[in-house]
Amino acid sequence: MLLKTHSNFNLECGTDEAGRGCLAGPVTAAAVILPKSFKNSLLNDSKKLSENKREFLKPIIENDALHFGVAHVFQEEIDTINILNASILAMHKSIAELNTTPEFIIVDGNKFKPYKNIPFETIIKGDCKYLSIAAASILAKTYRDLYMNSIHEEYPMYNWRQNKGYPTKEHREAIKKYGITKYHRKTFRLLTEQLKLDL
């Protein structure tokens, strides 16, 4: 059973990101403030839930949350500032999308940078421990998936609808065959052999 809050603040915001390990597309983050009365036995880390369950929970979270925000940081910026900084930037942007200023921020993982001097705590596996971080992980994942499904139409040969830009064997084979697109992260190791030179 996930815990409700980490602090005693009423406006405690959970934040998480999705798409950090992908070869293409944005890293997407969400921030969620849930009411103290919120209950949902199905809610868990998005990686532990099926796509159907995530899609089922998305409107419940959006409807029941006191406030939520979602933000993408796209591949060009990821290539410029690196994926760790891009992930933190996406979380900052998602918090900025909230209709209020949180009193405390809980972050999934162990890396974060201060946001507007609001106290925060990083929590490893926070998406398995706290409802608001789990809710943020679901919104980040479902919004990112929606974006990847939309760009799939432009480049169906990479099958982003299925792999969402993650480094699957099929995705790497498509990169080998067709090259890269404007959506690929150029600073990532897109192919296992790409460091070998034919001299």
Automatic annotation (TrEMBL):
Keywords on record: Cytoplasm, Endonuclease, Hydrolase, Manganese, Metal-binding, Nuclease
Ribosomal protein found in the keyword field: no
Catalysed reactions, semicolon-separated: Endonucleolytic cleavage to 5'-phosphomonoester
InterPro entries named in the record: RNase_HII (IPR022898), RNase_HII/HIII (IPR001352), RNase_HII/HIII_dom (IPR024567), RNaseH-like_sf (IPR012337), RNaseH_sf (IPR036397)
Pfam families assigned: RNase_HII
Cofactor: Mg(2+); Mn(2+)
Superkingdom, natural source: Bacteria
Annotated localization: Cytoplasm
Binding, a divalent metal cation: 16-17, 108
Enzyme class: hydrolase
PROSITE patterns: RNASE_H_2 (PS51975)
Cofactor, free-text remark: Manganese or magnesium. Binds 1 divalent metal ion per monomer in the absence of substrate. May bind a second metal ion after substrate binding.
Gene3D superfamilies per record: Ribonuclease H-like superfamily/Ribonuclease H
PANTHER family per record: RIBONUCLEASE H2 SUBUNIT A (PTHR10954), RIBONUCLEASE HII (PTHR10954:SF18)
Function per UniProt: Endonuclease that specifically degrades the RNA of RNA-DNA hybrids.
Family per record: Belongs to the RNase HII family.
Protein name, entry field: Ribonuclease HII
Organism expressing this protein natively: Litoribaculum gwangyangense
Organism lineage string: Bacteria, Pseudomonadati, Bacteroidota, Flavobacteriia, Flavobacteriales
